[in-house]
Amino acid sequence: MRRLMAANWKMYKTSAEAKDTLLLLAELLGNRSPEGREVLVFAPFTALEASAEAMRALHGGHVGAQNMYPAMEGAFTGEISPAMILASGASWVLIGHSERRHLLGESDEFIGRKVRLALQTGLNVMLCVGETLEEREQGALAGVLQRQISLALEGIEKEAMPHLAVAYEPVWAIGTGKSASSADIEEAHALLNQLLEKHFETTREIPVLYGGSVKPENAHSILALDNVDGVLVGGASLQAESFSRIVTA
Ligand code: PEP
Question: Rounded to whole angstroms, how far apart are CA atoms 215 and 93?
Fold first, then answer.
């Protein structure tokens, strides 16, 4: 399974800052992603074009947007379409990040519409799923993942599998400095693989990443866990030095 080493820059970095960070990252990595690993950076909309341009310095590197609206064009003030993302030079889109689900009220159905249109348009999709602390404490982990996966992937067929990745991001571990335990990560990834195998009626082909307070110090042990095919990194991806240590961990 290929490994995806992904950065979510959230609402940080102007286009000039994004370019500088990526050029430094490429230099630190010797202009290529480590063998078997791809680097993926989800940049702010205004930095997509500059990031895609700068990413040419890193072989095996790709750029993605952090969100999109599920329509090709139209009267949707402030939104961005999958065609606009592709035209910027980006090839991926992050869909269903917990900050969008919980701060901006995105539903599973709405997320499913985005996934379908992104794939139809030719974007690669990283779908984020994960439970809140309250849901975990109520023993609802399996049910939450099942609901999020089935509604996000409704109508998505096997052919889309090479263009899809899933990030397991427990909401309580994002930006808190407290990553999930090895046992929690392995349990959730095993559940996700079962759900994906059931949905696509085939054995595992979709990378499942872990996200939530990944740092240079814990990346190696997280990547060594069963069924962990990469990491999605927020805070520790903002500095090229720190992210390059994660990419090579
Ligand atoms: C994220 O934003 O997807 C994330 C995992 O953030 P952090 O690494 O800062 O917890």
Answer: 23
How would you class 65 by CB atoms within 10 Å of its CB: exposed for 0-12, middle for 13-18, buried for 19 or more? buried
| Residue 90 CA to ligand 1 centre (angstroms) | 21
SS3 (DSSP) at 127? strand
3-state secondary structure of 22: helix
Q: Is the CB of 12 under 6 A from ligand 1?
A: no
Enter the pTM of the model.
0.97
Is residue 247 lining ligand 1, measured as CB closer than 6 Å? no
Over residues 69-83, the pLDDT tens digits come to: 999 999 999 999 999
Given a contact cutoff of 8 angstroms between Cβ atoms, the answer to whether 115 and 129 are in contact is no
Question: Could you confirm whether 189 is annotated as catalytic?
Answer: no
The size of the chain, in residues, is 249
Exactly one of 62, 97, 189, 199 is catalytic; name it: 97
